[in-house]
């Protein structure tokens, strides 16, 4: 076995979940990563790519289907002492005060009451919540609750903190404030704390905090690329190096976005087991309009575009994925380039747009083809939602299957390809009424 200086190391991690009909849904595959001393790592990736699942495996809360996690080069067999987790919405117990909530973190450690109290007060002080010890969670703002969550993570004197989108439910200014304080705390860190691994959707956040950025691909989740950050000077927009880093992350993310398509004579486009992104037609239309591209030679910088229109990266990449799936655009090296169809679409009137959308949908999305074919072949020219759900549930969990179902229904309705009656839960072809 290779020994390494990594504090926490994942080797050959694979994780799959069972779907309804006993198939396996592969969420993570071939994950090898090390968390080393003195580094903040950011993991950035699409929703559903398995980032939270990975954090749970790294902390020992969940077991991988294959592979091993090593803590100081020893395989772990359960939750690791020395690792703390911070979640997006830290669940503070409403009937306990701030102090009591923080003390809970010490429950599994044998300490005297006095030590328990002292360590908790220190942790509360460290996160800037001195004075709020006797407050109840309902009296706290979102930012303050996150600080208490952080105090609960810090109170055990962890060597590693795993943070799962710790700032994503906060407003922009509060998030900025907390990020700056986290960095400050890290720079003046206690003896114990050696590394932080942070999951984020926010590119600027990764650029601001991380020494190393891992970019996750999805279906299944894998570390697709890595960026080592060597910034001199301020980590803000005033520093051209920072802006270049942000651009680089966008570029890597757009390269990671793999659209898996069938290429056979009988089926083209994304296969039935492709997880369609949960984007609405109106979002796609909005982006196409905003792109203002007049020819296929023109490209638009993804990072600039995202920033200019204040788009959440997750939304931006999901919409771009739809455009790639429908062959309206290609995204390469951080640039958006419309295809001929994309240019046509952006210039068309509403009725023409619907027709173009229908054509692209029926030639690039196997699920849409499957639905129309099933309707045509049924004796009464109607099929039940359950028929489609059954198919989807052989690949995905129920929730995801449901999400995909409603996405394709929306696309199909807009394109006037098929209709869906929510009362009878039946799908029919639009042209058959
Ligand atoms: N216990 C479970 N049983 C079945 N499927 C699960 C389970 N936990 C997670 N999944 C599925 O695994 C996939 C990855 O989920 P995960 O929460 O790790 O993604 P994520 O990258 O953290 O997403 P997000 O950015 O939205 O938080 C999803 O498709 C999810 O539905
Ligand atoms: Mg998550």
Walk me through the structure.
Helix 6 (203-209) packs across helix 7 (240-256). It is globular and about 75 Å long. The model has no long low-confidence stretch (mean pLDDT 89). The longest helix is centred in the middle third of the chain and has 17 residues, at 240-256. The chain contains 15 helices and 18 strands. It is of the alpha+beta class. Strand 11 (262-263) and strand 12 form a beta hairpin. 40% of the residues lie in helices and 21% in strands. Strands 6-7-8-3-9-10 form a six-stranded mixed β-sheet, with helices on both faces. The protein has a four-stranded antiparallel β-sheet with strand order 2-1-4-5, with helices on one face. The protein has helices at 51-58, 98-104, 113-126, 142-154, 172-187, 203-209, 240-256, 281-291, 302-308, 313-325, 340-347, 350-364, 366-377, 385-393, 398-414, and strands at 8-18, 24-35, 39-44, 66-71, 74-75, 83-86, 160-164, 195-200, 212-217, 222-228, 262-263, 268-269, 299-301, 329-332, 335-338, 382-384, 418-421, 426-429. The protein folds into three domains: 8-254, 3-Layer(aba) Sandwich (Rossmann fold); 268-273 and 365-433, Arc Repressor Mutant, subunit A, CATH 1.10.10; 277-360, Winged helix-like DNA-binding domain superfamily/Winged helix DNA-binding domain (Arc Repressor Mutant, subunit A), CATH 1.10.10.10. Bound molecules: adenosine-5'-triphosphate and magnesium ion. Magnesium ion (MG) binds at residues 51-52, 164.
């Amino acid at each position: 076995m290779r020994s390494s200086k990594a504090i926490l190391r994942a080797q050959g991690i694979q994780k799959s979940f069972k779907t309804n009909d006993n198939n396996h849904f592969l969420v993570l595959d071939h994950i090898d990563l090390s968390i080393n001393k003195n580094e903040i790592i950011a993991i950035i990736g699409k929703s559903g790519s398995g980032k939270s699942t990975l954090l749970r495996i790294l902390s020992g809360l969940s077991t991988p289907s294959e592979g091993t996690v090593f803590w100081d080069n020893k395989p772990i067999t359960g939750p690791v002492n020395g690792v703390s987790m911070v979640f997006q919405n830290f669940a503070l117990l409403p009937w306990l005060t701030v102090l009591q909530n923080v003390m809970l973190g010490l429950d599994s450690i044998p300490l005297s009451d006095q030590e328990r109290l002292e360590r908790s007060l220190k942790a509360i002080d460290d996160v800037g919540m001195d004075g709020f010890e006797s407050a109840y969670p309902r009296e706290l703002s979102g930012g303050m609750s996150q600080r208490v969550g952080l105090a609960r993570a810090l109170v055990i004197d962890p060597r590693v903190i795993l943070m799962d989108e710790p700032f994503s439910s906060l407003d922009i200014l509060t998030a900025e404030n907390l990020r700056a304080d986290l960095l400050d705390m890290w720079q003046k860190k206690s003896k114990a704390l050696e590394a932080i691994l942070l999951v984020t959707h926010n590119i600027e956040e990764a650029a601001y905090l991380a020494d190393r950025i891992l970019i996750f691909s999805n279906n299944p989740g894998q570390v697709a690329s890595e960026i080592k950050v060597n910034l001199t000077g301020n980590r803000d927009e005033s520093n051209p190096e920072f802006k270049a880093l942000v651009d680089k992350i966008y570029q890597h993310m757009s390269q990671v976005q793999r659209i898996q398509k069938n290429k056979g004579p009988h089926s083209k486009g994304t296969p039935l087991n492709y997880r369609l992104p949960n984007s609405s037609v109106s979002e796609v239309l909005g982006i196409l309009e905003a792109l203002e591209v007049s020819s296929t030679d023109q490209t638009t910088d993804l990072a600039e575009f995202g920033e200019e229109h204040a788009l959440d990266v997750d939304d931006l990449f999901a919409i771009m994925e739809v455009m790639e799936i429908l062959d309206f655009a290609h995204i390469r090296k951080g640039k958006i380039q419309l295809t001929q169809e994309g240019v046509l679409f952006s210039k068309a009137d509403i009725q023409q747009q619907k027709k173009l959308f229908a054509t692209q949908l029926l030639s690039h999305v196997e699920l849409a083809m499957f639905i129309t074919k099933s309707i045509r072949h049924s004796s009464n020219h109607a099929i039940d939602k359950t028929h489609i759900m059954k198919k989807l549930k052989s690949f995905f969990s129920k929730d995801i299957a449901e999400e995909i179902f409603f996405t394709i229904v929306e696309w199909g309705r807009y394109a006037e390809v098929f209709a869906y009656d929510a009362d009878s839960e039946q799908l029919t072809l639009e042209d058959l009424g």
